[in-house]
């Protein structure tokens, strides 16, 4: 699977971050009244999954510009995809929480992560 944090430029970049090649901080939305947020927090392990999602966003925010939320080794669409184990190692979240985060946040009802199947011969 190839994962991308959806609408990266709209939600996690601003005028200052777009000018920096690498950021030591990240603009994170403070909207806590949307249906996606409510559904996520109501899920089993919801608070841990939300924390893991934020850790994934922070991990992706350290990539070089232009950032677009790709969860790959180089932050680009054509980079080597990061799987749950690699994300777990980088974020320090348990792999089961990372797996739950990728699954729940890529569900249509939440829609914070895009999960794309890779062609069998692409990697």
Could you please describe the fold and organization of this structure?
By secondary structure, this protein is mainly alpha-helical. It has one domain. The chain is built from five helices and two strands, in the order βαααααβ. Strands 1-2 form a two-stranded antiparallel sheet. It starts with a strand and ends in a 7-residue tail after the last strand.
Unreliable stretches, pLDDT < 50, 5 or more residues? Answer: none
Measured distance between first and last alpha carbons: 11 Å
Shape: globular
Note the run of SSEs as H and E: EHHHHHE
Rg is 14 Å
Helix content: 25-40%
Give the mean pLDDT. Answer: 93
Instruction: Give me the number of helical elements.
Output: 5
- Strand arrangement, major sheet: 1-2
State the secondary-structure class.
mainly alpha
How many discrete domains?
1
User: What kind of sheet is the major sheet?
Assistant: 2 strands, antiparallel
**What is the β-strand count?**
2
The portion of residues forming beta strands comes to: 5-15%
């Amino acid at each position: 699977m190839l994962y991308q944090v959806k609408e990266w430029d709209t939600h996690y970049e601003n005028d200052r971050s777009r000018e920096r090649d690498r950021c030591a901080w990240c603009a994170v939305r403070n909207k806590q009244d949307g249906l996606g947020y409510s559904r996520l927090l109501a899920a089993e392990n919801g608070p841990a999954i939300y924390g893991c999602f934020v850790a994934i966003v922070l991990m992706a925010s350290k990539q070089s510009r232009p950032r677009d939320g790709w969860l790959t080794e180089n932050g680009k669409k054509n980079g080597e995809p990061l799987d749950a184990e690699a994300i777990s190692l980088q974020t320090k979240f348990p792999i089961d929480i990372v797996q739950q985060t990728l699954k729940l946040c890529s569900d249509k009802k939440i829609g914070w992560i895009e999960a794309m199947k890779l062609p069998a011969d692409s990697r």
